[in-house]
Amino acid sequence: MRIAKILMAAIWAMSGTSVPADPVSPKLMSEIATARVVILGETHDNGHHHALQARIVAQMAPKAVVWEMLTSEDAGRVNAALIRDPEELARVLQWAESHWPDFSMYLPIFQAAPEARLYGGEVPRAAARNAMRVGPAVAFGADAARYGLTIALPPEEQAARELMQMQAHCGAIPQDMLAGMVGIQRLRDAVLTREVLRALEETGGPVAVITGNGHARRDWGIPVYLDRVQPGLPVLVIGQSEQGEVQGQYDVILDSPAVDRQDPCDAFSTSDQ
Questions:
Q1: For residue 5, is pLDDT > 70?
Q2: What gap in Å lies between CA 251 and CA 40, rounded to an integer?
Q3: Cα 184-185-191 angle, rounded to 5 deg
Q4: Which of the listed residues 40, 64, 111, 119 has the most CB atoms within 10 Å of its CB?
Q5: pLDDT tens-digit profile of 132-143?
Q6: The pTM is what?
Q7: Per-residue confidence at 13, pLDDT binned at 50, 70, 90?
Q8: Which residue range(s) make up the domain with 178?
Q9: Which of 267 and 158 is assigned the larger pLDDT?
Q10: What is the CATH number for 58?
Q11: Residue 4 pLDDT grade (very low, low, confident, very high; cuts 50, 70, 90)
């Protein structure tokens, strides 16, 4: 397994320290050039992560970009002319009504490769709810076995994933929902992988993938499914940490400052009346 390399991001928030080396280095770009799929992880609300994604996409000039944030139908609506009109692009994608962070953070990634063909791997909410009921294999449909969705996860991985789901939801979800939520994550990984392989087949690659760190991680996410369905495919997995903190395994880790954010668990707390 390739050893992850920690690279410091170029922008640090008023720390008084010397400016670190540019993470988008010739060495990193030479590694990217050897891959047919480059998975670019992120923390969704960290603008530093998106800025680095945009720089990498601009330099690698992919033939296709697969987005976790777009459905397949969304991606089919986007073209170079629409990308040149950011307000119309946001309107067509109904971004303001989505659950994703501000469109201004993602726009530079669209603009970095306006001629690339776009693919969408988002699982719509209705489909996710259905997957909770029927399971990820049935929800995925044809090729579920090929993607490994008919096989139970190892018990230790299942337990670790369920614990992460409970922590992510501040302990406020019923225990009996956790297995289903892990199943939805597996479904999302498989759907994203299917779109990556479709993009490769239709464009020849290279393909960039814009997704959260959880889907990017080499030990659990999209790379596991790619290795299963198309072993030997040259894939580079880039995760992005905040102040050195990130969960999972990656080929390369780019580190950036953390951003100020409200504690998500505040929404679950009750105040005295």
A1: no
A2: 11
A3: 85
A4: 40
A5: 999 999 999 999
A6: 0.90
A7: very low
A8: 5-12+21-257
A9: 158
A10: 3.40.50.11550
A11: very low
**Residue 268 corresponds to which tokens in the numbers above?**
């679950």
Q: Which residue has the tokens 């992919």?
A: 62
Q: What is the CA radius of gyration of the chain?
A: 19
Nearest to 44 by CA among 104, 101, 119: 101
Helices (H), 2-124: 26-33, 47-60, 72-76, 80-83, 86-92, 103-112
| 232 domain-assigned | yes
Element (H, E) at 165: helix 155-168
SS3 string of 174-243? CHHHHHHHHHHHHHHHHHHHHHHHHHHHHHCCCEEEECCHHHHCCCCCHHHHHHHHCCCCCEEEEEEEEC
Packed helices 47-60 and 26-33: angle between N→C axes, nearest 10 degrees: 60
Apex CA 192: angle with CA 246 and CA 27, to 5°?
A: 55
Q: Are 40 and 56 in contact (CB under 8 A)?
A: yes
Angle, helices 103-112 vs 47-60, to 10°: value is 10
pLDDT tens digits for range 88-126: 999 999 999 999 999 999 999 999 999 999 999 999 999
Q: What is the mean pLDDT of residues 45-57?
A: 98
Domain count, the chain: 1
Q: Across all residues in the chain, what is the average pLDDT?
A: 91
Which whole-number Å values give the CA distances from 76 to 61, 116, 117, in the listed order? Answer: 19, 12, 9
Nearest of 61, 63, 38 to residue 238 by alpha carbon: 38
